[in-house]
Design brief:
three-stranded antiparallel beta sheet; 6 helices; alpha+beta
Length: 150
């Protein structure tokens, strides 16, 4: 199967699956699973094409306003750069889930945000992007839309 068609179909299925699972007991888990698949599966060439097509100036502003740390580099200046940092973080298992420590008995854990850490040892740089679940969901929709329209 041609990779472009596979990624388009995968993006559409990921979005449909997320919509179905969102109403289940673990919407955050569904969001993370759906997003990571979309970030990792495309080849570098298709990933670059997808991330070039992400639309949303207000989304970039939301992400930049939430970012807590840019250790040794400048903050990303485009959604393409944000996408690349998220992809690198996912590929290197450098995602931290920020959640309440002890939820009430019988209640699911509430996740407030995720931190993606992209470390480039060769250049000695690190970028950390912390996003609320709401902003991460907006990014997922923007990225899946761009992937579905390859």
């Amino acid at each position: 199967m041609e990779e472009r068609k596979f990624i388009r179909d995968h993006a559409k299925c990921s979005r449909e699956n997320y919509e179905l699972l969102k109403s289940s007991g673990s919407p955050t888990t569904a969001l993370i699973d759906s997003l990571i698949g979309l970030l990792i599966l495309p080849s570098k060439t298709l990933f670059d094409e997808i991330s070039q097509d992400i639309i949303g100036e207000s989304l970039l502003e939301n992400i930049l306003s939430e970012c807590s740390t840019f250790s040794t580099t400048l903050p990303p200046r485009s959604l393409r750069q944000v996408a690349q940092h998220l992809r690198n973080s996912a590929a290197h298992k450098a995602i931290t889930v920020n959640a309440e420590i002890l939820p009430e008995s019988g209640r699911p854990i509430s996740v407030s945000c995720l931190t993606f850490k992209d470390q480039n040892n060769r250049e000695g740089t690190t970028v950390e992007i912390t996003m609320s679940i709401e902003t991460l969901e907006q990014f997922f929709y923007a990225f899946s839309d761009a992937a579905a329209n390859l």
